[in-house]
Design a protein that fits this description.
CATH architecture: 2-Layer Sandwich
CATH topology: Ribosomal Protein S5, domain 2
Strand content: 25-35%
Shape: globular
Helix content: 25-40%
Structural class: alpha+beta
CATH class: Alpha Beta
Number of strands: 5
Largest sheet: 5 strands, mixed
Distance between the termini: 28 Å
Length: 84
């Protein structure tokens, strides 16, 4: 029986806090039970969230599930980036 790998990280920016869970997958990103594109309407916020995965060439290798609270949109995107 294989052990499922799952990674957890916490990121904070300004008054936002993000709990980030990564597991091997196809690259889906879910924020507060919504797809990334639905939660962050602006492309710049979506780019901020994807940035650490693109830099490490892991964008299509992990599924990311995020719970983020507090602050505004930019602070939340930054907190998610730090959590990843």
């Amino acid at each position: 029986m294989a052990i499922a790998q799952r990674y957890y990280g916490t990121g904070r920016r300004k008054t936002s806090t993000a709990r980030v869970y990564l597991k091997p997958g196809k690259g889906s990103i879910v924020v507060n039970a919504q797809a990334l594109e639905e939660y962050f309407g602006r492309k710049t916020s979506q780019m901020i969230v994807r940035q650490p995965l693109e830099v490490t060439h892991l964008l299509n290798q992990f599924d990311v599930t995020v719970t983020v609270v507090g602050g505004g949109i930019n602070g939340q995107a930054g907190a998610i980036r730090h959590g990843i």
